[in-house]
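Example (one chain per record):
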Amino acid sequence: MSETNPPPPAPPQDGQPQLPPLVVNLQYIKDLSFEVPGGPETFATLKSQPQIQIDLDVQARRLPENNTYEVALAVRVEAKAESKPVFITELAYCGIFTLTGIPDASIEPVLLVECPRLLFPFARNIIADITRESGFPPVMLQPIDFLSLWHSRRAQQAPVAGHA
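Predicted structure:
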């Protein structure tokens, strides 16, 4: 039985190496805070599992460099017991991405769906680590459907019929 190897990729026409359509240049924590408003009394009086509320947002902005964008995944976690805050943590986890050869109509979904998918596992670990290191059980964020989040955001931004 003979094996056939696929032909090598054609070299770029202009002699320049071809870049992938999406490059992650850098990831970083832009902002991180954790607070226990009740101080040590919180630990003494906490008798049950607190209720956790999670808010998530994604923002993107173009940077001065050609085809380069900052995407920020903002996560806010607030735990309450008996309507009193137990802890609050806020994280802005960012990535710098370069997009190459992506059609203009596809840039927004790449920035607000694909880029956050790449950032999310790291943000999830940071939230789990900071809550655990602060003396609480780790908050494990469930997977996020960024495509649905993007569609929801677009539907909210669409003009209401009859109101121009």
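Caption: The radius of gyration is 22 Å.
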